[in-house]
Design brief:
The complex is a heterodimer of chains A (320) and B (500). Chain A is α/β, with parallel strands linked by helices and 320 residues long. Chain A contains 11 helices and 10 strands. Chain A has a 5-stranded mixed β-sheet, sandwiched between helices. In chain A, α2 packs across α9, α2 runs antiparallel to α10 and α4 crosses α11. The N and C termini of chain A lie far apart (42 Å). The chains are: A alpha/beta (320), B mainly alpha (500). The interface between A and B is large, with 65 and 59 residues.
Chain lengths: 320, 500
């Protein structure tokens, strides 16, 4: 309770006067973050909460409900009262979760609201591995399947899904070694414990510039704004687009008029100059999109990730 | 040397600006407050403060957040000593002798020694970071999964050493802790284990509900049973300030604790926890009369408190010098830097010298603020022991419940705390100590994760633990320590058998 109160005061202090006086929302809103406070997702959502608070003219309280790879927060979101005052974060890992965990909610149980952006994935090689380029990496991985050791999340996590996608799309096989998050993965890469990793650009660019590891490429259509010197996969002959995205979703059953105001308001908040600057400074690639864009991404990834997980023998619930 | 002085001078220039002293003070006050409240740890507090730092300059923001972190370590020992409630994993050990001292009417002395030990360790470690941070940071990169396994084993063995009852019971409690640590998600396959179909168990059993139950609630039950007629738990309050003799006794322990803490803090994972447990075991090994420890020996407070504070400072080394956060809180600090557009990496020292040296200097400033803040408070804290227990214990239960709930906003954790409270009472009746169990619970998942990773990386070759020199060294140390504990007790057992 204490924490909630403090957060409420916090959000209230940040909230600017209402831009448009409207009947909705007219009450404090809650943004459920299914990850612990302080991580990348939490920071992204706190930026949204701040922008949404200005947009709607009410405090937006961030409620961290971490646990079970996001499933606990997603359940809280699905079960929230559909009055438009509660919404929350949903991401790539959430699409994969129901195939790994029978208790996890599916995309059919959520209402898409707005798209935040997709952080492109990348492949990094350790200094000790001697890997020189993406082509070299792929050639080595194909020549000796399972010999290259790659640091990544536990099964179902963002960097795990990224490496599993690369394996399927680029036709190679490496040994996936699970680490609890990006920081220990980067440490293992610097120490030469693993040969490669599949973590995000902002977490590794400084080490690349210092020559402590090598970023082989970024798997997005365009180069990353923070690392313009890193070529894309496509430039190196591999037409692969893999990233992990974040969006905002709500429970099913929000009345249509409220739903529209909520979707429009969130999109408008994310399209402000101030929000874009803050998000870029923090290293996020943002591509604000509406509910239709969000839903299309869910459906596309649902099919893609099911195939990847099925092939890896990881589909433990909801066989298709 | 000249560089060091000029760098530190620049750092103090930054840290002693009016704004930064103010932020440091706010951080320290908040940290002390949340440290005293059981359960509410520095992690949610720093996360909550994060949005406020968006508008500050990054150096000021980090100075404040760091203040919350080490401030909480000062506050954390308060409840451990007064109510046998460990607020943090690293203050579990302080409960043993700290609370025993409080029962003997030496609560003031225990609190003062904890504060002095903390400030000594804090300042000594800050100087260490300034003088040797970057080379020390590279040490963290020498450690691989197999080496962490050996470090964890050493930590577990030290829990056997510190137990003052039967060695067999301590071993069983460690095993029980390790068993509890297997609840949750399998690190390699992502399968759920022993979760009873409950999502709340998917990430394992939380440290806070279990320690609150085993230590805090169990203590309340025992007190209510044994108090018969008395109204307060401590008979007398005694002097607030430690005598010169006590300080002389505590000082070598502080030195040893600081060394332990500074060394273990650099390693990811259970750094401060292993440091505190190891420091306590060391005290027990070097003490002339080891049986005093566990019954209110001042070294038993000084060493672990110095160790956990030294470790909380030295865990800044890999974060600041390499950009690698060794624990969740340091990860938050990296998050705070990224919000301000500073990418984690080894270039922070060269690209942001004012931030780097300013933060280091602010830790020295913060430690001084904390000791000035905390010493006068001791008088107030000690008075709490004179509050009739009939009013005190319901308040403690409420604080425990609130603190436990706030960790994950989970009512399930409050139920878990109640269950472990009952279990803790049963353990007390059976003369089984909960501290080794807590260490097993904390280190078990780390041990498993690193062990399985080491096996994957070595393609299933178990010899890797003997081939790597670091791992081999720690394994030998663990074996020697275990032999040192077991041999006398076996010999004693034989003697007793012969006597019969």
């Amino acid at each position: 309770m204490l924490r909630r109160h403090l957060m409420l005061i916090g959000a209230g202090a940040l909230a600017a006067p209402a831009v448009h006086a409207q009947s909705f929302p007219g009450a404090p809103m809650t943004l459920i973050v299914p990850w612990p406070a302080g991580g990348g997702s939490d920071i992204a959502m706190r930026l949204i909460a701040e922008a949404a608070s200005k947009q709607f003219g009410v405090p937006v309280v961030v409620d961290n409900r971490p646990g079970a790879a996001g499933s606990i927060g997603h359940r809280a979101l699905v079960n929230a009262r559909p009055d438009g005052l509660t919404f929350g974060m949903f991401s790539t890992a959430g699409v994969a979760a129901p195939y790994l965990n029978a208790n996890a909610n599916t995309i059919d149980e959520l209402e898409p609201l707005a798209f935040f952006g997709s952080d492109p994935s990348a492949i990094q090689a350790s200094k000790a591995s001697g890997i020189t380029s993406l082509a070299d990496f792929v050639a080595r991985a194909r020549a000796n399947p399972g010999k290259i050791k790659n640091g990544n999340d536990q099964p179902g996590g963002a960097s795990f899904l990224a490496v599993a996608s690369y394996e399927k799309m680029m036709n190679f096989r490496i040994q996936k070694v699970p680490y609890a998050g990006y920081a220990p993965t980067v440490q293992a890469l610097l120490a030469g414990e693993v040969d490669s990793a599949t973590v995000a650009i902002p977490d590794t660019i400084e080490y690349h510039r210092e020559g402590k590891l090598k970023i082989l490429g970024v798997s997005s259509p365009t180069r990353h704004f923070m690392a313009p010197e890193i070529p894309t996969f496509k430039e190196q002959g591999f037409d692969v687009d893999v990233g992990s995205w974040r969006c905002v979703a709500g429970p099913k059953g929000i009345p249509a008029d409220r739903l529209k105001k909520l979707q429009d308001g969130l999109l408008a908040a994310m399209r402000t100059e101030e929000f874009a600057t803050r998000a870029r400074t923090a290293g996020f690639t943002i591509q604000p999109g509406d509910a239709a864009v969000t839903l299309a991404r869910w459906r596309a990834d649902d099919t893609l990730l099911y195939g990847i997980l099925d092939e890896a023998g990881l589909v433990k619930a909801r066989k298709r | 040397m000249h560089d060091l002085i000029s760098n530190l001078a620049m750092g103090f220039g930054v840290a002693l600006s009016l704004q930064n002293i103010g932020l440091c003070f706010i951080g320290c006050v908040l940290g002390t407050a949340i440290g005293v409240l059981p359960g509410i740890g520095p992690l949610p507090t720093v996360a909550m403060l994060l949005p406020f730092t968006f508008t500050l300059d990054p150096t000021g923001a980090l100075i404040m957040l760091a203040g919350v972190f080490y401030g909480a370590q000062y506050g954390g020992s308060t409840t451990a000593i007064l109510a046998r409630l460990p607020g943090e994993t690293s203050s579990v050990v302080t409960c043993l002798d700290g609370y025993a001292m409080a029962l003997k009417g030496q609560a003031g002395t225990a609190l003062a020694i904890a504060a002095i030990g903390s400030v000594f360790a804090g300042i000594a470690t800050t100087l260490l970071i300034a003088a040797a941070g970057p080379p020390l940071a590279d040490v963290a990169l020498l450690f691989q999964s197999a080496d962490y396994v050996a470090v964890m084993l050493l930590g577990l063995v030290s829990a056997v050493v510190m137990a003052h009852g039967s060695v067999l019971k301590a071993l069983l409690m460690i095993l029980f802790g390790l068993l509890l640590g297997t609840v949750g998600t399998d690190v390699a396959s992502g399968d759920y284990r022993l979760t009873l179909g409950l999502d709340m168990l998917a990430d394992g059993l939380g440290f806070v509900p279990i320690s609150m139950g085993l230590f805090g609630l169990a203590e309340i039950m025992v007190n209510l049973e044994t108090m018969a007629g008395r109204t307060t738990i401590a008979k007398k309050v005694g002097s607030l300030w430690p005598s010169r003799a006590v300080l002389r006794q505590a000082f070598p322990a502080m030195l040893r604790g600081t060394a332990m803490g500074a060394a273990f803090g650099i390693l990811p994972g259970g750094g401060p926890t292993i440091a505190a447990f190891s420091a306590y075991s060391l005290e027990k090994k070097v003490a002339r009369d080891p049986s005093r420890l566990g019954h209110g020996a001042v070294e038993g407070v000084a060493a672990p408190e110095a160790a956990n504070n030294a470790a909380t400072q030295s865990c800044f080394i890999p974060m600041l010098c390499l950009g690698i956060p060794p624990n969740a809180l340091m990860a938050l600090m990296v998050g705070a830097m990224m919000v301000h557009g500073i990418q984690p990496g080894p270039s922070i020292i060269t690209k942001q010298p004012e931030l780097f040296w300013g933060m280091i200097a602010s830790m020295a400033v913060g430690n001084v603020i904390l000791v000035i803040l905390n010493l006068p408070l001791i008088g107030i804290w000690v008075k709490l022991l004179q509050v009739p227990y009939a009013y005190l214990f319901p308040a403690i239960i409420v604080f425990c419940a609130v603190g436990t709930y706030t960790v994950d906003s989970s009512t399930g954790d409050v139920v878990l705390m109640a269950i472990f409270g009952v279990l803790g009472y049963v353990f007390r009746k059976l003369d089984c100590e909960p501290a080794p169990l807590m260490l097993g619970l904390v280190l078990g998942p780390l041990l498993e994760e690193n062990f399985r990773r080491a096996m994957v990386l070595s393609d299933g070759n178990a010899m890797v633990f003997l081939q790597r020199p670091i791992s081999l060294g720690f394994l030998i140390a663990a074996a020697l320590l275990l032999a040192a504990v077991l041999l006398p007790s076996i010999r004693r057992g034989r003697q007793e058998a012969f006597r019969e």
